């Protein structure tokens, strides 16, 4: 496979997955923008998380994350709490409503993966996972090398 066709295959796969996620979100009647979904997922999947760490993880400016947090708080999906390790920041936690939305989002992701992998045998899927992890690790190493990390 040439480099151009690999690029095209990755591009098509990424768009197919995003399309399935959008379709699943619509089917589940989740009315949150992508940024709010990503922020909610970060909060639900990470204990002891604050706005600064979400901004860093998402590679977004803190103001954009703060707007999403304020919307999620307003909608009753998350709450702020004291951070015993740093009084200048607050820890973020999902409410029961936020966890319910996260359950729907998890089912959307499972459905999307089922759609993508329906025609694959288990050994083909395992091979794909190994190859894609190796590729992702290689890309991460390039980023770390350019930042002066090893």
Task: Describe it.
Helices cover 70% and strands 7% of the residues. The protein has 150 residues and is mostly helical. It has a domain of 75 residues: Arc Repressor Mutant, subunit A (Orthogonal Bundle), CATH 1.10.10.10. It has a two-stranded antiparallel sheet with strand order 1-2. A hairpin with a 7-residue loop joins strand 1 and strand 2. The radius of gyration is 18 Å and the shape is globular.
Query: What is the CATH class name of the domain at 32-106?
Result: Mainly Alpha
The class by helix and strand makeup works out as: mainly alpha
Spatial sequence of strands, sheet with the most strands: 1-2
Task: Quickly count the helices.
Answer: 6
Topology-level CATH name of the domain at 32-106: Arc Repressor Mutant, subunit A
Percentage beta strand: 5-15%
Please sum up the structure shown.
It comes from Marinobacter salexigens. This is MarR family transcriptional regulator. The protein is mainly alpha-helical and 150 residues long.
List keywords for this structure.
150 residues; mainly alpha; two-stranded antiparallel ribbon; 6 helices; 2 strands; MarR family transcriptional regulator
List the helices and strands and how they pair.
Blueprint: H1 3-27, H2 34-45, H3 51-58, H4 62-74, E1 78-82, E2 90-94, H5 96-117, H6 122-146
Antiparallel strand pairs: 1-2
Helix pairs in contact: 1-5, 2-4, 2-5, 3-4
